[in-house]
Amino acid sequence: MKAVQQKVAVLGGGSFGTVIANIMAEKGIQVSQWMRNAARAEEINRLHVNSRYLPDYPLSESLCATTDIEMALKDACLVFVSIPSQSFRSVVQLAKPFMPAGQRVISTTKGIEGESFSLMSQILKDELPDAKVGVLSGPNLAKEVALHQLTATVIASDDEDLRTQVQSALHQSYFRVYASSDMYGVELGGTLKNIYAIAAGLSAALGVGENTKSMLLTRSLAEMSRFAVSMGANPMTFLGLSGVGDLIVTCSSPLSRNYRVGFALGGGKTLEEAVESLGEVAEGVNTIRIIKVKADEMQIYMPLVSGLYEVVFNGAPVKEVVKALMMNEQSSDVEFVLPRDAV
Ligand SMILES: NC(=O)C1=CN([C@@H]2O[C@H](COP(=O)(O)OP(=O)(O)OC[C@H]3O[C@@H](n4cnc5c(N)ncnc54)[C@H](O)[C@@H]3O)[C@@H](O)[C@H]2O)C=CC1
Ligand SMILES: O=C(CO)COP(=O)(O)O
Prior knowledge:
GO terms for molecular function: glycerol-3-phosphate dehydrogenase (NAD+) activity; glycerol-3-phosphate dehydrogenase (NADP+) activity; NAD binding. Its EC number is 1.1.1.94. One of its GO terms (cellular component) is cytosol. Pathway: Membrane lipid metabolism; glycerophospholipid metabolism. It is globular and about 60 Å long. The protein is built from 15 helices and 10 strands. The chain has an 8-stranded mixed sheet with strand order 3-2-1-4-5-8-9-10, with helices on both faces. It has helices spanning about 15-25, 40-45, 70-75, 85-95, 120-125, 140-145, 160-170, 185-205, 210-230, 240-250, 255-265, 270-280, 285-300, 305-315, 320-325, and strands at about 5-10, 30-35, 65, 75-80, 105, 110-115, 120, 130-135, 150-155, 175-180. Helices cover about 50% and strands about 15% of the residues. The mean pLDDT is about 95. By secondary structure, the chain is α/β, with parallel strands linked by helices. The chain folds into 2 domains: about 5-180, Rossmann fold, CATH 3.40.50; about 195-325, N-(1-d-carboxylethyl)-l-norvaline Dehydrogenase, domain 2 (Orthogonal Bundle). The structure holds 1,4-dihydronicotinamide adenine dinucleotide (NAI) and 1,3-dihydroxyacetonephosphate. 1,4-dihydronicotinamide adenine dinucleotide binds near residues 13, 83, 84, 110 and 142. 1,4-dihydronicotinamide adenine dinucleotide binds near residues 84 and 280.
């Protein structure tokens, strides 16, 4: 595999941007990490730590942070964008003047832009029509990657060179990168699982049993696959790291911010309190609303999303919603993931 010799840019100063930037810096790749917060950039450059997002985790001394986006992007052969979905487009617009035609740009963001129902790869294609686009997604809790826990991820793109370059740039003894050409499916998997992580956190707070957890996880996978296949994704993708893999990790770990929002809701907090106490981005909250609207519009059967929507946004009592889900007409329930029409 051809090693990446040139410079790489990472846009975003949060947990995942920092972890991705650091993997490559540790390998001796020249990495420029752009962020808007000057104090944080200085801290990374001087003290080699990002105390706001990854406290107690020493960063490579060669990782270079900057608030100058032009400088960050200059001569970069790969650009990773690790910005929450609500600000993703505006940051890409800011970066656009400094990217040459054919620039390879990779989103690591697991969310949807509400008004346009665009995944981040679509935003990249809209804003940078000449760029080569990829998405990175998988079971990748930032704090575990930071601790060098053995981890795998997926790079998905139509562009084979991009896939190979990203594999080469990120591959480490503790980090394996698998390639996929189903960009849409990989991206949807990472985005949809956030919804079910909120449901898992909520049910954990309520003290449900192992049977219930298993039912929830498995039916979540069926539901997210059904939605994604209706939108054109490959169902097999959902049996991989960016589908069931990411669903398992996010639905089982308090390190997941979406799980923590659900747990707080289950503990009696309001949505505002749950989000406020998190102090970081939980993409799943907006994703529930966006997917509910889309599923209704396209008449895709998503009972878990509908139930969660009622609990989270309309204050419906969890017990009532769960009872209604369990008492649903049985004859429509088919336990099958393939083929396409049976999901
Ligand atoms: N943290 C994790 O374990 C993982 C996160 N992701 C995804 O990566 C994306 C980013 O997540 P994190 O880095 O974890 O988020 P985070 O909440 O830790 O950090 C977000 C960063 O984006 C910056 N930001 C927000 N709006 C901005 C703007 N307009 N201009 C410049 N900077 C802006 C913030 O200042 C912050 O540095 C999310 O979509 C998340 O789903 C993916 C895999 C793992
Ligand atoms: O996507 C993640 C792990 O793969 C991180 O999930 P959270 O955004 O819920 O922390």
